[in-house]
Structure formats: C-alpha cells, structure tokens
Amino acid sequence: MQEKPFKTSTPPSMTILIDNMPLDAKAAQICDAIANDGYAITEQFLPPLTVNALASEARQLQLAGRMQRASTGKTNRLPNEEIRGDLTHWVEGSEASNPQREYLSRMENLRTELNKSLFLGLFELESHFAIYPPGAFYRKHLDQFQGYKQRQISCILYLNENWQAEDGGQLRLYLDGVAPEPYQDIKPVAGTLVTFLSGRFFHEVLPAQRERISLTGWFRTRSDQPV
Ligand code: OGA
Ligand code: MN
What we know:
Blueprint: E1 17-18, E2 21-22, H1 23-37, E3 39-42, H2 48-63, E4 68-69, E5 87-90, H3 98-118, E6 124-132, E7 138-141, E8 151-158, E9 171-174, E10 183-186, E11 193-197, E12 203-205, E13 212-220
Antiparallel strand pairs: 1-2, 3-11, 4-5, 5-6, 6-13, 7-12, 8-11, 8-13, 9-10, 9-12
Bound molecules: N-oxalylglycine and manganese (II) ion.
C-alpha cells in the first residue's frame, strides 16, 4: 500500500463538522428546503455547548427580571395571555455575549445564503429569547403583522435539553393556509432550528409540561411601509 505523503491528527481544512455535515452545507440544505417546501427543520444547528450556554443566559435574564410578557401585533403592544403566555428579551448585537455572537454569526451566514439562492433581499435579523412557563402557549397566528410584510423568514432555535415527547410544547406548523390540516408537529429539542416563510405558514405553540426556552429570530426586508 502506498504511503500517505503526510500524517495529520486533525483534518487539514478548517471546516467545522456537526453531524458530519459542514455548517455551510446546513445553510444550503435550509435554502433548498425553503425553495421546495417553504420550511426547513435542521437538527444540531449549533454545537450543544453553545446551545446550553444560550439556555442558561435565558434563565439568568429571567432571574434578573429582564424578561417581559410578550405582546401581540404591531400596533397592539399589550400582553394578552389568552393569545400568548411567553416572556421575551430582545438580543442586542452591541451587547451580545460570546454564545450570542456565535448564534448571530451563523444566522448572518444563513442570511447571505438565503439572499444568494432565493433573492429575498433580507436585510437584518431581529431576535429574542422566549421562555414559556409550564402551561403557556401561543395560539395559531402568522408572523407577518397585518399590513406589514417586513418579516420574511421566521427562525426558531430551541434550547431545551432532554425534551421528551410527553413534555408537549410542540410547534404546530399548518401546511395549507389556515386549514386545520395537514400540519406538522415539531418537538422543541435543543439545537433544532425551524425556518419557514413568515407570510405563508400559520403556526401555534402547544402548551408544555415544563419550561420551554427558545431563541427566535426573523429575517426582515428593509421597508416597513404598510402594504
Ligand atoms: C413566535 C412563535 C414558535 C415557537 O414567537 O412567533 O411562533 O416554537 N414561536 O416558539
Ligand atoms: Mn410565530
């Protein structure tokens, strides 16, 4: 057998592998799935250590009283627990921690890939942590506010370790407009990223038995003119 010209204990390239798939390949896979189906479900979008660090940050924010009851609608800023019961905290790029920077840079990579392959003109990401206390839910809704189409792609990264089917808290994604069927239920498992066209998919968060944490973002276009 022929000798290899060199020996190395680490891969020669700097490619980071998760799930045996390079990170760029995950972004490409998301673009393909969105082009074909309008949505994508990606496991292990970020390394487990980063995901766990983000989950602790969300819990710290809650302990520090920095999570707020979420509001509904663009003009209706009042919290309404009959519609949604989560607490949120917006991520600020200027004061981002290292795990948040890692998240933001992966999302930036995804944004440029989406723009290259789907010509969406995505301009920026807005994102918040969300904590659903046990029993909280978010009723069926669309992420584009009525009359405003700035939010183009919804991206939800789940931060829940050891999530079991009996814990509930699925994201129910309605696949045919407002019709109650068909739908796809997605478990909020740590590291899973769900991406979908904000203007197409009605969805809801089913109540969970335990606290449910996520980092949710929307890629937006520049214009915020009512349409
Ligand atoms: C939202 C939302 C879904 C989820 O924040 O708008 O629909 O699975 N979240 O957390
Ligand atoms: Mn939503």
